[in-house]
Amino acid sequence: MTISRRILLKAGVAAGTALSFPSILRAQNTPAIGQTVRMVKSGDLGVFDSMISSYYITAHHGAAVYDTLFSFDSQMRPQPQMVHSWGVSDDERTYTFVLRDGLSWHDGTPVTSDDCVASVRRWMEAASSGPLIKALATDISRKDDKTFIIALKEPLGLLIETLATLTPPCLFIMREKDANTPPTIPVTTNIGSGPFKFNHELARPGASFTYDRNERYVPRREAPDGLAGGKVVKVERVIWDNIADQQTALAALQAGEIDYLESVPMDLLPVLEGDQAITLQILDKGGFVRYLRINFLQKPFNNLKARQALLHLIDQEAAMRTSSPPEYIKAVTSVFGTKTPYTNDENTGWFKKSGDPEKAKQLFQEAGYAGEKVVIVQVTNVPWMSDVSQYIANALRDIGINAELDPTEWGTVTARLDNKGSVDEGGWSIYPTSDADFAMGDILGNPIFLANGDKAWYGWPQNDEYDALYAKWATVATLEERQALAREMQRVWWDFVGSVYLGAITAPSARRASLTGLIEMPIIVPMWNMQKG
Question: Looking at the whole model, is its pTM more than 0.85?
Answer without folding.
Answer: no
